[in-house]
Write a structure and sequence with these properties.
- The protein has 22 helices and 21 strands.
- Helix 7 (342-356) packs antiparallel against helix 10 and helix 13 (456-469) packs parallel to helix 15 (491-503).
- The protein is an alpha+beta fold.
Amino acid sequence: MSQRNPSLKFKLDEPSDFYDLIKRGHSFSGRERNCCFLNVQGRRFADVSAVSGIDFDDDGRAISFVDWDFDGDLDAWLVNRTGPQVRVVRNELPKNDQDFLEVKLQGVTCNRDAVGARVTVHLRGDGHAPLMRTRRAGEGFLTQSSQWLHFGLGQGAAIEKVVVRWPGGGLEEFTDLAPNGFYQIKQGAGKAARFTPPQGLAGLKAQPLPMEKLEAPPRSLLGGLVPVPALKYRTWDGKDANLDAQSGRPLLLVFWASWCEPCLDELKRLDAAKDELAAAGIDVLALSVDGVSSAAELATHSFDDPKSAAAETERRLNEAKDVAHALVQRLNLALPSGMASTRLVDGIQLMLDESLARVTPIGVPQSFLLDARLRVFGVYRGAVDVRSVLSDAKMLSLDDAELRARAVPFAGRWHTMPFKDVILHVATSYLNQDFVAEGIPYVETHGDRLAKCPSYAELLMTVGDRLLAENKFDDAAQWCRRATEVDGELQTAHHLLGLAEYQLGHSKAAARALRRALELRPTHVGAQRTLAWILATTPDASVRNGEEAVKFAERALDASAGPIPDPIMLDILGAAYAAAGNFRRAVEVADEGLRLARERENNELVLSFEERLKVYRSGKSLEEGIATTNVTVPPPEKKP
C-alpha cells in the first residue's frame, strides 16, 4: 500500500544493501531447502535432495553424521536456527548388498582421540582407488561428527590392508579387517580389535512435527512506546484533522478498505464492541485507505502537465472518499471514521520500519494501539481481536522494563537493550525521507528523550541541514548552533553553521564557524572554499584577509583538482588573488575560468567572469568593484 517502499536491491555493493534485504525479511541462509548430492562413481554429483527426504526448508546451520543404529550406513543430525532446532534423519536407503567398514582410533603417544590421523583403505583387485578418511575434531559450522570413520566399500569388496598414519608421522598397516565390521585400532597394538555393537538399542520412530495453532490473528508488541509524529487524516466533509487531536485516551487506529471483505466484518465487530472499548477507556478511529491505493496506482502513470496530474489525483481521491463514505453509511457505523492520507500511512510505515527493524508494508485490515500520548505499542495484522486489545491496553501504564518483558514470548537476559535509541532512528528517518515538516516538530516535542541518545548532536545537525536546503537560513543556523553546543567536536555541524551564517550576511560568525570546522578537519574542501570566498569578498575589514584567502583557495583547488579545473574554484581563487593585491594572477585565473565557461557554453558563468576581469584589470578587488559591476557571487558548497 505504501508508496515509499523501494524495490528490493539484489546487487550487494554496500553493507547497507545487505542490511536492507535483512530488514525486508530476506535471509542469506534461511528458508532455503537443504540439498543432498549423490557421488556418481567419482565422475559427477547428482542432486537427490527431493528423493532423499532431507530437503527441509528449515533455517539449517549444521549437519553431523553418525551410524546411530550401527546398521552400516550413516544417519544424520540436523541443527537449525529455528524450530525444530534438532532433527534426526535415519538413513533407510536400500543396502543392495553394499559393504562397509567402520574404524575407531585411539592414540597412545599422540592425542587420545587421534585427531589428525589419516586412514587409508586399500581394496583387492584392479580399478579400486584407495579410500581415505581423516580424523577431525570438527566438521562444518560448530559441528562434530561421530568418532567412527565410515567407509563405503561397494558390492563384493575385499580389503587388502588398512594403513593408519598417526599424528606425528608414524605408519601402521593392518591386514586382518573384513568388510561389514566395526573395528577399534589402538596405536602401537599391531592388530585391529573387532567391536560388537550393543544390542537392544531403542529405535528411532518418525513423528509428525506438532504445530501450535494461533487462537488470534498475529500481533506484535513493540517492547516500548514509540511516538508517531503529528500526521493528518481527512474527515468525510473533506477537512484535514490532526491525528494528535484526540481525547487524551488510548486509541485503536484501524486501517481498512471498501474492497476488503475481512475489513467490513471487522468494522461491524468493532462497532458492536464500541461500548466495551469505551468503558475500558479506548477510542477507535477507522480510516479508509482507498485513497492511498488510488494515489499509489496513479503514481505509476506519466503526465505531461503537472496540473493534469494534480486534477486527476484529486478526482480519484474524491471518488474513493465517496465510495468509502457510502459504505460507512450503508453499514450504519457509529465508529469515528475518515480517510487516511498517503502521508499518514507512509509516516506510520516509517515508524514501524525503524521500530521492528523489519520492513513489512502495511496492509488491510491492520490496526495499531496507541497510548494517550499517541505512542504506538501494539500492531495487529489481519482482523483485530478485541480481547487482545483490551488485554494489551492494560499494559500501557507499565514502565519500559516491564513492557520489554511482556513483548517477548519467553524470559531471558538482554545482550543489548532494545528500543534504547529507536526514537532517534525514527526521527532521523522522518528527516531523511521527506518528512521534514513532521520531523522537526517531532524532534522538538521529544527533545528530552532524544537528548539522552549518543547521536543527539547529529540529529540536531540533520535538522539544520534540511532547513539549509530549504533556504531557511536563520532556523538552520539555530539548529546547527545547538548541535555544536551539544558536541563541539562535530565538524560537519560547524561547517553547516558557517554556511547558514554566510547566507545571513554574518561574515564574522561564518568565518569563525568555518575556521573551527577546519581545525577539526583541515582537509575539508567545502569549508576551505567557502572561507576563502568570505575572506576575499566580505566588506567587513575585521574579517577580510586576502593572504589567508589565497592560502585556503589554493588548498581547496589542489585537493579538488582533476584533469580540468572547476571554473567556480577558479573564480574563488581569482577573487582571493585580487584581495591579496596580486591582480596579475587574478586576471590569469579569471581568463582561464572564462575559457572553460565558454567551452561548456555556460553563458551565465561567461558573463560573470567578464565582469570579474573588468574589476581586476582596473586594479580593484572584487568587494571594491561589486557596487559598480553586475557580479554573480559563486554559491558555497552546501553539502558537507
